[in-house]
Amino acid sequence: MASIAPVRRTALTFWQKMNIGMALFILFGFAQFAARGFVDYDHAPLIFHLHGMLMVGWLGLVVSQSLLAGRGALALHMAMGWASVIMVPAIVIVASLTSLSALASGLTPPFFTPAYFLALVHVSAIAFAVMVMAAVVLREQTAWHKRLMVGSSVLLLEPALGRVLPMPLIMPWGEWLSLAIQLGVVWLIVREDRRSLGAVHPATLAVAMGVASCHIVYESLARIPAWQALATAIAAG
Fold it and tell me: Is the dihedral of CA 133, 139, 140, 143 positive or negative?
């Protein structure tokens, strides 16, 4: 028994694999997009760089927190977790400013209307913040906490999928394909719930509903004339 104990201590848990896997996919999505020549770093507004640094920092924090929790370093995990109270509002504000700059500069994806792009960024940023803050509030309830944190990363898959999938070729169905992939990731949590708990945890259902609701709100908000007028005015400078 002594010979296998170290293996058990160092093996990655399901939750660690999920956090690491999604972080790597998000980084890959943006890296390959840049490698294909779709990013002009020299002429990108400063806010774009700040947004990128914040998100890379966030992914690093999430992975580090997951590894610390899996290794039982809960005191350090909790101490580092308070960084989210500062980082999450900053991420939302900077994401909003980045989207406004992109609209004003004509740097939005050509397959999105200005109204859809404005809705996509703001709704997803707010949903991400709500999910992370809910996880912080419920940090004493471990089952809720870890599922909500993984769920917040599922929301962050959206922009990476937009850079991996051939969106110009599959619109207007591209966003629904993104939703299907995101829900496929949530299904992995469902499968883990059934394996470990015998039933789907309410937090997993909350994550699934949150992810699906975001896409419905994107579509609905982008069809409202007042929202379309606002996005057009921003895009016109």
Answer: positive
Token representation of residue 69? 């929790």
Burial of 95 (0-12, 13-18, 19+ CB in 10 A): buried
With tokens 């707010």, the residue in question is 126
For 165-205, write each residue's pLDDT tens digit.
888 888 888 889 999 999 999 999 999 999 999 999 999 99
pTM (two decimals): 0.89
CA distance 33 to 48: 15
Residue with tokens 């110009």: 168
* Alpha-carbon separation of residue 212 from 23, 46, 114, 136 (angstroms): 21, 32, 21, 22
Q: Would you state the structure tokens that stand for residue 121, as one six-digit string?
A: 């960024």
Count the neighbouring beta carbons within 10 Å of the beta carbon of residue 187.
12
SS3 of 65, please?
Answer: helix
What does the domain layout of the chain look like in residue ranges? 13-235
Q: Which residues contact 108 (CB under 8 A, 6 or more apart)?
A: 102, 114, 117, 235
